[in-house]
């Protein structure tokens, strides 16, 4: 593996999540499906999901998040919105 392939991004959009009540939470970045799965593991509550836009984080509204998940991952959407 070289530097050209190590940092290659094959996805159009990268996301992250901020959990509540978790001081030691690591910062995670990834595709929406994996970030949602990560957010569902601890039982701390979820502050919000963010889209990485170059050097900024843009908060994703619950409405937009639901639309994105309902289209591609309906079961994951159902699990998430029982808690969020």
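^ Assign residues to that structure.
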């Amino acid at each position: 593996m070289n530097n050209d392939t190590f940092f290659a991004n094959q996805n159009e959009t990268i996301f992250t999540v901020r959990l509540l009540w978790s001081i030691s939470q690591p910062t995670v970045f990834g595709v929406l499906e994996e970030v949602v799965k990560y957010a569902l593991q601890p039982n701390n509550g979820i502050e919000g999901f963010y889209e990485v836009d170059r050097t900024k984080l843009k908060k994703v509204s619950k409405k937009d998040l639901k639309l994105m998940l309902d289209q591609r991952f309906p079961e994951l959407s159902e699990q998430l919105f029982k808690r969020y």
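The longest strand covers residues 46-53.
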